[in-house]
């Protein structure tokens, strides 16, 4: 799994669902101006006020670099996304349009990484790594992208402005490629090093799996992680997972008359199981809304139990969990797709 998105025709769309990276600078007249928005190519959304609203009002803009340094990065919570922001100064050679500013007055650059709340625990490391790499490799080149953007606005295109645009576009492409590489490498690496004892990280990995990412290699990093667990195989089909497979789903049936789903599960281990919780979760509101939450004091060896949950209108995807309450470990997880069940019946 060297490249999480290698040879995937939907790679750009998938990356956009995982993270959006903005590299911006502050123009003293125009305000917050994007240099690159990844993985959205071109200038399609930079003038979209709704899309740029959380960027424009991000608190990172209102802190200077010294104030920010004590906080590492600044976050904004907006509509189920967390926007991680970090600011730094870089070289500049453009003529400023405000009194008291010189051509060599440093540019203010902001890097913002947007992640869904379900995987916001990855944001701290990702924004730090993203900013460090951009500074290291482009700190003395980013101003040329700004010069190119300003040159594009000139009515009369001279040779100097054309050369500036050409050079700036090349640097912009290289910056875009760096952000893409960092994103690919980061999500590939973090899957392998996740801590299986952390419920928060379990939820994040489950979210990635629901987005269609192959997380079959989870746990390869060694002990203490998800060793031996497979959420999805390479064909994208759901599979049950557990450490010792103590439970087996015997049957799943949709009862149309009552708009309910029935799930029969057997304790196939050689011992009785106790202190368990069984949950059925609505995937669209993943980890927020539970349709069923049932405690089981003791589940005898060989015993089959029936679980019944309502079916929500126009919703066909659900998750079934068996959880050990003593340590919050998910013993078994099953993704249930009602459309797939209907095809088989």
Concise overview:
With 345 residues, the chain is an alpha+beta fold.
Explained architecture:
The protein has 345 residues and is an alpha+beta fold. It folds into two domains: 11-192; 240-344, Sandwich (Immunoglobulin-like). The chain is built from eight helices and twelve strands. It has helices at 11-18, 49-56, 65-69, 123-138, 142-152, 159-192, 199-210, 338-344; strands spanning 20-27, 31-38, 74-78, 81-90, 107-116, 247-255, 260-267, 273-282, 290-299, 304-310, 317-324, 329-337. The strands form three sheets. It has a five-stranded antiparallel β-sheet with strand order 2-1-5-4-3, with helices on both faces. The chain has a four-stranded antiparallel β-sheet with strand order 9-8-11-12. A three-stranded antiparallel β-sheet has the order 6-7-10. The radius of gyration is 25 Å and the shape is elongated. The two termini are 36 Å apart. Residues 1-10, 67-71 and 217-244 have low confidence and may be disordered.
Task: Chart the SSEs and their pairings.
Layout: H1 11-18, E1 20-27, E2 31-38, H2 49-56, H3 65-69, E3 74-78, E4 81-90, E5 107-116, H4 123-138, H5 142-152, H6 159-192, H7 199-210, E6 247-255, E7 260-267, E8 273-282, E9 290-299, E10 304-310, E11 317-324, E12 329-337, H8 338-344
Antiparallel strand pairs: 1-2, 1-5, 3-4, 4-5, 6-7, 7-10, 8-9, 8-11, 11-12
Helix pairs in contact: 4-6, 5-6
């Amino acid at each position: 799994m060297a490249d999480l998105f290698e040879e995937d025709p939907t790679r750009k769309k998938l990356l956009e669902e995982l993270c959006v990276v903005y590299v911006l600078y502050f123009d003293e007249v125009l305000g917050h101006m994007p240099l690159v928005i990844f993985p959205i190519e071109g200038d399609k959304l930079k003038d979209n006020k709704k899309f740029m609203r959380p960027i424009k009002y991000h608190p990172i803009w209102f802190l200077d670099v010294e104030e920010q340094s004590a906080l590492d990065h600044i976050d904004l919570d907006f509509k189920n996304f967390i926007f991680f922001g970090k600011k730094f100064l870089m070289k500049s050679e453009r003529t400023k349009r405000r009194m008291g500013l010189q051509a060599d007055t440093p540019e203010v650059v902001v890097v913002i990484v947007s992640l869904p709340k379900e995987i916001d625990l990855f944001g701290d490391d990702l924004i730090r790594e993203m900013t460090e790499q951009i500074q290291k490799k482009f700190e003395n080149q980013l101003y040329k992208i700004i010069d190119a953007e300003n040159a594009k606005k000139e009515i009369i295109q001279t040779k100097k402005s054309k050369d500036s645009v050409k050079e700036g576009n090349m640097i912009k492409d290289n910056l875009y490629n760096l952000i893409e590489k960092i994103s690919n490498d980061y999500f590939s690496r973090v899957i392998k090093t996740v801590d299986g004892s952390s419920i928060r990280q379990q939820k994040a990995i489950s979210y990635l799996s629901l987005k269609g990412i192959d997380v079959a290699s989870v746990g390869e990093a060694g002990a203490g992680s998800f060793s031996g667990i497979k959420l999805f195989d390479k064909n994208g089909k759901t599979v049950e997972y557990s450490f010792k497979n103590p439970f087996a789903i015997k049957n799943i049936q949709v009862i149309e008359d009552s708009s309910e789903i029935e799930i029969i599960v057997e304790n196939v281990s050689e011992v009785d199981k106790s202190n368990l919780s069984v949950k059925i979760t609505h995937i669209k509101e993943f980890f927020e809304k539970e349709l069923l939450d049932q405690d089981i004091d003791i589940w005898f060896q060989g015993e089959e139990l029936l679980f019944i949950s309502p079916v929500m209108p126009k919703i066909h995807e659900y998750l079934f969990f068996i959880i050990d309450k003593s340590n919050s470990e998910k013993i078994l997880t099953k993704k249930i797709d009602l459309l797939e069940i209907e095809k088989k019946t």
